[in-house]
Design brief:
Blueprint (H helix, E strand, L loop, with lengths): L2 H26 L1 H10 L5 H21 L3 H18 L9 H25 L14
Length: about 130
């Protein structure tokens, strides 16, 4: 294992693990997240929270273990794009404290989207279980 492969593996586990944890959170804290999504105008909030939880969990596991990682990255991006602009629309919030929290989450999601886009261009997933290819 080269040093660069080790760094990529560590980064992959950290990045994918972030989404695994958040996917699990969608199921363990579903009531709270449904209420939050509904407050942001998400239609069918219960379904949306469950569906996005599944997307996060599958996408995160895919990236973490390198099993069809391009598909997992697409799931993550399909989650991030609407959530970033619908849920974290900080420009619509008047309360300065809440606005700052949502602004931080908005830019965090943009950074995660950028990382997913970069990973999408990476074809050499060393130490992965990628026996399936996109």
């Amino acid at each position: 294992m080269t040093f660069m492969e080790l760094l990529f593996l560590i980064g992959r586990v950290l990045f994918g693990g972030f989404f695994v944890i958040n996917g699990i959170n969608h199921f363990t804290n579903q009531a709270t997240l449904v209420e939050y999504a509904a407050s942001r105008g998400v239609p069918a909030a219960t379904f949306a929270v469950s569906a996005t939880g599944g997307m996060l969990l599958l996408g995160g596991l895919s990236v973490t273990f390198g099993i069809v990682p391009q598909f997992g990255l697409v799931l993550i991006m399909v989650f991030l794009i609407p959530v970033t602009f619908k849920i974290h629309a900080f420009w619509n919030i008047e309360d300065p404290g809440l606005r700052l929290v949502e602004q931080s989450n908005f830019y965090k999601n943009l950074a995660l989207l950028g990382a997913a886009l970069m990973l999408l261009t990476h074809n050499d997933w060393a130490f992965s279980l990628n026996f399936l290819r996109f």
